[in-house]
Every structure is written in C-alpha cells, then in structure tokens.
Amino acid sequence: MTSSTDINRDAFLDAIAFTRCRLNNDTDGLTAVAMACEPVEMVEALASLYIANIMELVAHDPRRVDLFLKCLQSEVSAPRDESGR
Fold first, then answer.
1. What is the pTM assigned to this prediction?
2. Helices in 1-85 by DSSP H: which ranges?
3. Residue among 17, 21, 20, 14 at smallest CA distance from 38
4. In terms of C-beta distances under 8 Å and separation of at least 24 residues, what long-range contacts does 12-17 make, across chains too?
5. How confident is the model at residue 5 (pLDDT cuts 50, 70, 90)?
C-alpha cells in the first residue's frame, strides 16, 4: 500500500465522489465512479480517508484506533439471527 502522500489527487476525488454517492444512495453515480476510476488507487484513498475519520473519532490515539477496528471487526463478524441482523 502506498502512503497517503503517494495517492494521486484523482483517486481522492473519486473516493470522495464514491462516498457521496453511497451517502445519497445514488446507484447510477456509484456505477459511474466505479467504471471511471483506478480501482486500487481509489480503495487506497478510501482507506486513507476512513483512517483519517477514525483518528478524529478517537482523538488521534493509535491505540484507540486499533481498539475501534477490533470492536468493528467483532460486530461485523458476530453471528446473525434469522433476519440477517
């Protein structure tokens, strides 16, 4: 994975556009961004943005970031009931 300074500007703009489309449930926009982007670069940009947001949530403490990710992983990995929840 490249460092955030190595990720190009277009990848960040694609990541922001993709996130905005997801937020607005814009499936046509999601498809358009996905078809036009460099996928690996956009995923790296999304991960960088995600990490930056987590750092804001946990007051820039890397130990708390790791704890947050472990909690999130636990929630996602938890068994689901019959309704899929």
1. 0.69
2. 9-23, 27-36, 39-57, 62-77
3. 14
4. 12/45, 12/48, 12/49, 14/38, 14/41, 14/42, 14/45, 15/42, 15/45, 15/46, 15/49, 16/49
5. low
